[in-house]
Design brief:
mainly alpha; rod-shaped; 0% strand; 153 residues
């Protein structure tokens, strides 16, 4: 059947039908695209945001312990020393928790390598901190200061 031989109403109905089919196709593509956006947003909120929170917890704990280490070097009071050591232990626990929680969330090879390097550096820091703490406890504050400047910080 030739388009010119069709009645005007038939041609208009066919054109309207074609527009409706295009409308349905666009709607389906739009809904599918929104579903993909929703999935990605959900991934960001549940996984990526959790990684950021844990990284912030690591950062806060490390900075807190750096500050407490310096406080430990300058304090003269046994009471203050005990309180500082409690704070350091608390921060150390939070950092450990964050590192353990972060492990399963890191999936890329680069991320795993960085996390491994963080663990190595942290182990070195903890050893150095413990040595400097022992020096402070033994009354060798000047040696502890030198060690902290050379190794810990």
């Amino acid at each position: 059947m030739n388009m010119q031989n069709m009645k005007l109403s038939t041609r208009l109905a066919a054109a309207f039908g074609a527009v409706m089919v295009l409308l349905v196709v666009v709607a389906v593509l739009g809904i599918r695209g929104m579903a993909q956006v929703n999935e990605r947003t959900e991934e960001i909120v549940t996984k990526e945001l959790r990684k950021i929170e844990l990284a912030m917890q690591l950062s806060d704990g490390a900075r807190g312990n750096a500050r407490r280490t310096l406080e430990l070097l300058v304090t003269q009071s046994a009471e203050q020393t005990a309180r500082i050591k409690e704070r350091i232990a608390f921060n150390r626990g939070r950092v450990t928790e964050a590192m353990e929680a972060l492990g399963p969330l890191v999936v890329t090879d680069e991320g795993k390598a960085l996390l491994g390097r963080m663990r190595e550096v942290r182990a070195e820091y903890v050893k150095s901190f413990e040595r400097s703490g022992s020096l402070v406890a033994a009354g060798k504050r000047d040696e502890a200061v030198s060690m902290v400047n050379a190794e810990t910080m």
